[in-house]
Amino acid sequence: MAGAMARGWAGAERPPEMAFCDIDRERAASLASEVGGATAETLPELAASSDVVLLAVKPVALGEVAEQLEGSAPALLSVMAATTTARLAEAFPQTPILRVMPNQPVEVRRGVICHAPAHAMPDDLRTRLLGLLEGLGTVVALDEEDLEAAMAVISCAPAYAARFAGDLARAGSGEGLDPKLSLALVAETMAGTAEMLARRDPEAIQQAVAPPGGATEAGLEALSAGGFDSSIAAAVHASLERVR
Hints:
Layout: H1 2-12, E1 19-20, H2 25-35, E2 38-39, H3 43-48, E3 53-55, H4 62-68, E4 76-78, H5 85-91, E5 97-102, E6 111-115, H6 123-134, E7 137-141, H7 147-155, H8 157-174, H9 179-197, H10 202-209, H11 215-225, H12 228-243
Parallel strand pairs: 1-2, 3-4, 4-5, 6-7
Antiparallel strand pairs: 5-6
C-alpha cells in the first residue's frame, strides 16, 4: 500500500520529497528509484529527515518499530490494518497521528481513502496531510469504529473486481474473442459502469440493462443461482473476521 501511495504521489508531483526504509533494502531502493525518492538505512534516520512518517507495517511489527524509534516520530500517517489510533498512541506518546484506510487505486489517483479523527495533531498539519491524501483520490472522514467495515469494502474490493473482470474476460475469450481484446472491453465497461454508479443506484442500472426476458436477465439469474450474492457477503464477513 505504501508503494501504491508513493506512485500516486509521484504522478501528482507531491509531496516534494519522499524517502523509504524497508527490511528488504532492495525493495526500498527499487521503489525510490521508480518514484524519484531516496532511501534511509534505518528507521531513526528516516524519521530524523522527515516531516511525516507513513507507517505501513504488519500489526505485529508495531512494537519493534516503536522501539527502534524510541516511541517518537515527527508525525505518523498510519495505514496499518487492525491497529487503532489508541494503540498507536500508546506506542508513540505525544506524537500527532492520523489513521487512514486507503485502497489500491490510489496508485492511479482514483483511490478511496477513509480516515479516523486525528490524534494530538495541530489543525494546520491535519489540513496539510488531508490535502496530500486528496491528491490520491476521494477522502472520507469516518468514526474509527467504522474503519474496519470500510476496509472490508474498499481495500478488498479491487481484488474482487479484478477477479470478476478476469473471469468475465476469460469467458469472452472462451467464446472466441482475442484474450487481450476481451480484457480491454471488460476494463472499459467497468470504468464506465463506475461512472454510472456515481449518478445512479445499482438497482436502477440493473433494470436499465436487463429488461425482462433478455440476455442480461438470463445472466443475472445464472449469477444468483451460482451464489454470487451470498459469496460477496461471505467475502466481506471473512475479511472482517481476519482483522477483528
